[in-house]
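Sample 3 of the quickstart, ligand nicotinamide-adenine-dinucleotide:
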Amino acid sequence: MRLEGRVALVTGAGSGIGRASAILFAREGAVVTVADIDAAGGAQTVELIQQGGGRASFLATDVTDPEAARALVAHAVATGGTGRLDVAFHNAGIGLVGSVEETSPEDWDRVMAVNVRGVFLGCRAAVEQMKAQSGGGSIINMSSSIANTGLGRRAAYAASKGAVLALTRSMQVDAAPYGIRVNALLPGTIYTPFVQGYLRRSFQGREEEALASIRRRQLTNELGRPEDVAAAALFLASPESSFVMGAALAVDGGLTAGKP
Ligand SMILES: NC(=O)c1ccc[n+]([C@@H]2O[C@H](COP(=O)([O-])OP(=O)(O)OC[C@H]3O[C@@H](n4cnc5c(N)ncnc54)[C@H](O)[C@@H]3O)[C@@H](O)[C@H]2O)c1
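Result:
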């Protein structure tokens, strides 16, 4: 039980990586708040956790809303039973395919609102709580391998994930004196509804062919699973990573290590 007695929140936990992480955190003993804009997905995650004997509740949350970010922390503290928030995993995010010329200012703003403003607001609310409690806490922000390695037609998405990484490092400096650790996760391509939707929309009828080419990007010749990223999130959430601060943890099957 690597998170026994801990209180955690996970945004975007109604699907994919967030769901796998919420399930794993609960299995390791945490009381988990599942936050998502998608109520059906969030409720399903809670059901899966409870079926496994874990403790979790759902809070409908739009991460772009400052009040919702504060309410989320308050909910996690109120339901956690210890008066604390130990782990905040800011995972909610959206994708966008497009070069700079293909990206409208509205789409740019939408991606930045969820992926960057959402993480910023979550961090702001979590830090406020973690500063007020003894021993700090662990904040995990969802970046992407794209923050380090360019990928075509991802202008807004890449910029958003680069911003999350820079925010994480800068924020770590300010938060360190309070015992608060702030780390970023940089997954490669993980087979989730996020990637399934991209394949459907961008490669109608040629999904298998596209998937084969995406597989070749990794040194493993395979995509990652949500559970692979959840395991890394668990490490950053747990005290095992107490000397890991401001890190960019790649979980990408060697994508950014080099070409075969
Ligand atoms: N799947 C990948 O290959 C991959 C790679 C690198 C990084 N990531 C990042 O990991 C995170 C999770 O991705 P995933 O693949 O599990 O995606 P997903 O689409 O399966 O899940 C994302 C969840 O975020 C929720 N969400 C979207 N907007 C929201 C908002 N405004 N407020 C609250 N919740 C909101 C969605 O409802 C959804 O449940 C994202 O930040 C994504 O950018 C994914």
